[in-house]
Specification:
The protein has about 280 residues and is α/β, with parallel strands linked by helices. It has a single domain, classed as 3-Layer(aba) Sandwich (Aspartate Aminotransferase, domain 2), CATH 3.40.640.10. It contains 8 helices and 7 strands; from the N terminus they run αααβαβαββαβαββα. A 7-stranded mixed β-sheet has the order 1-7-6-5-4-2-3, with helices on both faces. The longest helix is centred in the N-terminal third of the chain and has 23 residues. The chain is globular, with a radius of gyration of 19 Å.
């Protein structure tokens, strides 16, 4: 994790995290430590909004610019184009977007593993109740061999939160089923290249290994799947022309899948933290 500004030595990197002066921080899998530069960026943004207000064209243009910058920083970490990155509040937001937005029914099976987090299992259970598809859980190491003719979607962890094992994603991709990877313990912890992984969707958190704020995350959606994946959170920001809201003119990129808004201070924190990666 070399800094873009040359902070590539171990000591310079450690200096970004004041908490390391008092503890050995081993829990980034829940919430990562806060980088000094991220705290400073958040405070600067709060002060700007305190003194300048949170309204007017300049403010909202700044938020749009911030979202664009976040996509631009997240895209190379994921190995995709910025237009394939949606901004979310968590890994689970991304999972919900996919399992709720796909046209799945009683004839379909969603394949998962026995090592999944409730943040993936709960969205699957809720969507199963609504749409009637089957959810089948198999041993983590065997999932690629379990894909069958009814498997419409494989939804599983990239890195298991139980064992730390890394799924054989290319084998899943070769199966022909669509693949959703839960990257909560992946992005920022291990190298990610969605092209090499072969996945169709990759949901990730910002507050863990990327050291961002709670309520931050990202979802990769392969561009070829935009039409087949209905936005699950339609909003002002997901539309190319909000004045035609009833016609649902979705934006042409993955911003159609954005969840809510990115608060200025939280976005500034995320952007500054991503400079370390």
């Amino acid at each position: 994790m070399a800094g873009r500004d040359g902070a590539d030595s171990t000591e310079a990197f450690r200096a970004e995290f004041p908490v390391l002066r008092s503890v050995s921080y081993l829990n980034a899998g829940t919430d990562g430590p806060i980088p000094r530069r991220a705290a400073e960026a958040a405070v600067t943004r709060v002060r700007a909004e305190l003194e300048g207000g949170r309204g007017g064209a300049h403010h909202f243009a700044g938020l749009d610019e911030l979202k664009g910058a976040l996509r631009g920083r997240l895209a190379p970490l994921l190995g995709c184009a910025p237009g394939e990155v949606a901004l979310t509040r968590s890994t689970t937001d991304g999972v919900n977007t996919v399992v709720s937005g796909l046209d799945l029914g009683p004839d379909d099976e969603v394949l998962t593993t026995e090592e999944e987090h409730p943040g993936l299992l709960a969205p699957l259970a809720a969507a199963r109740r609504r749409h009637g598809f089957e959810v089948r859980a198999v041993p983590f190491a065997e999932i690629a061999d379990e894909v069958g003719p009814r498997t419409a979607l494989v939804a599983c962890s990239h890195v298991s939160w139980v064992s730390g094992r890394v799924v054989d994603a290319p084998a899943l991709a070769r199966s022909g089923a669509r693949v959703l990877l839960d990257g909560a313990q992946g992005l920022g912890a291990v190298p990610v290249d969605v092209g090499a992984l072969g996945c169709d969707y990759y949901a990730a958190s910002g507050q863990k290994w990327l050291c961002g704020p709670d309520g931050s995350g990202a979802l990769y959606v392969r561009r070829a799947h935009f039409e087949a994946l209905a936005p699950s959170w339609p909003s002002y920001g997901s539309l190319s022309d909000p004045l035609l809201a009833e016609e649902l003119p979705y934006r042409p990129d993955a911003a159609r899948y954005d969840v809510g808004v990115v608060p200025g201070p939280a976005g500034a924190w995320s952007l500054a933290a991503l400079d370390l990666f």
